[in-house]
Amino acid sequence: MTDMLTLADVATKLVELESHPGLEHLRRYSPAGVTAQRWALIEAALGRLWDDLARLEEISASGDIADGIERMNAVYPEILAFFDSVDDINTMVAKQIAPLLRQIDSAGGAILNEVTDLLAASATDPLSLTVDEIERRIAAIAELAALQANWPEAIAETSARLDALRDAVKHAAQTRERATNKVLTGPLPVAADAEPKLRTELASMAGPDPTALRELQQRIASALQRVRQDEALAQGLLDRRTELKGRLRAYAAKAARLGLAKDRDLMSLRGTASGLLAQQPCDLRAVTQAVVEYQQTLATKREASS
């Protein structure tokens, strides 16, 4: 609207608002939450606009109504933006969920709780939903719909994930045993073996339940992550021992290039470091100190000979 609008133009705009999809939506459902709070203010403002229109129509033949129209022009955009927001959110949800509903229906599955929850929010409190929230929830529903539509394959894939978890538990135990044997360390963390219980849960699913299956898959993923973290800690100790062995060999090779391979001090220090590395389990702290001492002594002797 502009300052040039007449009273008739204002009346036309208000009549158009009455058929706005956003207003129709609010009248079809009982607003709740954020939407209800904002609607209470907008509804009151809309009522005042109609009252102002009636008052201005009564005085239009005898007085100046420009100030009244200007006030109405200032309020109208806010009301229109509110109705547009309600309609935009509702339309976005309906558009994105429609193909998922068709997929669920074609698979002969029951309507998911996640679907009814989103539709309920869109109906009664659309302004509580952001675009990101809608996209996140739609993605979750799409994942569930895919599980439901391909149930046998989903069960087989979940079983394969349990196989991977079982193998990871076994491999982590082997890595932990090697680390305990080769490196002096305190007790290494051992995640509880959740695979048997999770597999029992999978076997107990009598019919398609995509929500329960997704939750089970998430717990499998969490268990696998914990097992791999524990193994990474054990492997890190073995890798540190290998690194120290490599550093000692590199320093010894450098000593040979400098003509210091037979230096008694260096030979003694190398022997000490090698002996510590050969111990099972070896003390990584002591090995690290011995390798650093060899490096520093080599640097000192190199400077002295240059």
Condensed summary:
This protein is mainly α.
Your description of this structure?
This protein has 306 residues and is mostly helical. It contains eleven helices and no strands. It has helices at 7-18, 21-28, 33-59, 66-106, 113-124, 131-149, 151-182, 195-203, 210-257, 264-278, 284-305. Helix 1 runs parallel beside helix 4 (66-106), helix 3 (33-59) runs antiparallel to helix 4 (66-106) and helix 9 (210-257) packs parallel to helix 11 (284-305). The longest helix is centred in the C-terminal third of the chain and has 48 residues, at 210-257. The radius of gyration is 37 Å and the shape is elongated. The N and C termini lie far apart (88 Å). The relative contact order is 0.07.
Helices and strands in order, then pairings?
Layout: H1 7-18, H2 21-28, H3 33-59, H4 66-106, H5 113-124, H6 131-149, H7 151-182, H8 195-203, H9 210-257, H10 264-278, H11 284-305
Helix pairs in contact: 1-3, 1-4, 2-4, 3-4, 4-5, 4-6, 6-9, 7-8, 7-9, 8-9, 9-10, 9-11, 10-11
